[in-house]
Amino acid sequence: MKRTAQLIVIVLASLALLYAQESQTMEMTGTICNSACVKQSAGQASCDASCSDKSGDAVFVDDSGKVSKISNPDKVTGKMGQKVKVKCKMNKDKEAMEILDVVLANAG
């Protein structure tokens, strides 16, 4: 009986730590881009500023060239092609981000 209780406590504590780790917010700097305008060069992605295609979804291209889908694109309306700083949470699968806050990045 004691072993079962201990095992349950360990499992619950592990789940609590895992949940806390996944729900941490982070700040990132990059560009809001239309997925149709993302170009790859030397293994890094960037946003083609001259692209006018509007057929793709909104994505975030961070300063290191990694592209992340945006799970709530309504938050970045009007910021397409602009350098921004975002507060976000990465979804469990790490393939999409939920943007909590977005501001234009300093130009200099």
Brief overview, please?
The protein has one helix and seven strands, in the order αβββββββ.
Q: Mind summarizing the main beta sheet?
A: 5 strands, mixed, barrel
Main CATH class: Mainly Beta
What is the rounded Rg? 18 Å
Determine the mean pLDDT.
84
Question: What is the number of helical segments per DSSP (H or I, 4+ residues)?
Answer: 1
Give, in order, the helices and strands: HEEEEEEE
**CATH third-tier fold name:** OB fold (Dihydrolipoamide Acetyltransferase, E2P)
How would you write the strand order of the largest sheet? 1-4-5-7-6
- Helix fraction by DSSP (H/I, runs of at least 4): 10-25%
Which descriptor suits the 3D outline?
elongated
Structural class category = alpha+beta
CATH architecture: Beta Barrel
* Unreliable stretches: none
Distance between the termini: 63 Å
Write down the domain tally: 1
Number of E-type strands: 7
Tell me the β content.
35-45%
Could you please describe the fold and organization of this structure?
This protein has 108 residues and is of the alpha+beta class. It has one domain (25-104): OB fold (Dihydrolipoamide Acetyltransferase, E2P), CATH 2.40.50. Helix content is 19%, strand content 40%. The chain has 1 helix and 7 strands, in the order αβββββββ. It has one helix at residues 2-22; strands spanning 26-34, 38-41, 44-47, 58-62, 67-70, 83-90, 96-104. The strands form 2 sheets. It has a 5-stranded mixed β-barrel with strand order 1-4-5-7-6. Strands 2-3 form a two-stranded antiparallel sheet. Strand 4 (58-62) and strand 5 form a beta hairpin. The longest helix is centred in the N-terminal third of the chain and has 21 residues, at 2-22. The radius of gyration is 18 Å and the shape is elongated. The mean pLDDT is 84.
